[in-house]
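Q: How would the structure tokens look for this protein?
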Amino acid sequence: MRSVARLVLLFTAVLLISACASNSQDEVLAEETYYENARNDMRSGNFNAAESSLNALETYYPFGRYAEQAQLDLIYARYQNLDLEGSRAAADRFLRLNPQSEHADYALYMRGLASYNLDISLGARYLPIDIAARDPGEQRQAFEDFSELLNRFPSSQYAPDARQRMIAVRNRLASLELIAARYYISRQAYVAANNRARFIIENYPSTPPVEDALIILAETFRFLDLEKGTSDAVALLRENFPDSSAFNADGEFEADVLSRENRSLASVVTFGLIGDE
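A: Here is the predicted structure in token form.
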């Protein structure tokens, strides 16, 4: 009986100690304490700890004096933690809860920045079959966010950077189309390559890939025996890029994109590291 009593006492003591530790860990701090802890952690670069304090602040004081600033800081803390989707979600939440906030431009900017920097997968970056089928939705979302920022807050301090990033997004989208066109050439899908090239010219006329797109357009038209399409594409290339490498010393169109891009399937799969036999 004494042994049983000792076990009961020991078990009770363990429960009490655990309860005390749990209460200590779950102790709710003052609103200002959470806020100051988060700010100090962000200043020191400890964004994981800052995010924990900001989450606690939102949990225990959702309508407190620091609520709006905590939501803004959470966007930034998640972004610095490379949680880009989480940062975008926090920006969405801020805009939903504070539609008339004077800091809405910042939330829009950060939402666009998170989408802008979301990396594509290794497969989508290097495997042609993925690139050709990939819908660059994140880049389009970033463009929409920056566009909304400029429309709503044209004088925002974030507007100049947003404009530059919109240009970069257009260049990225055009480059993806060019990669797709080259992929189709490698698979001898010349009509599809022609369509991609025309899409670049029609939708991204001021981007760097336009020159290559015109060359692809002219070559694929020539391969398909469409003389007018070929002559029109060459004329556009000559007018806009008179010094293009597609013209020989006599000024004649002499590109070889089809022969250069039309690699064997083995070469495509090995990323060109193994040449054609």
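The two ends are 88 Å apart (CA to CA).

The CA atoms of residues 178 and 209 lie 7 Å apart.

Upvote if useful.
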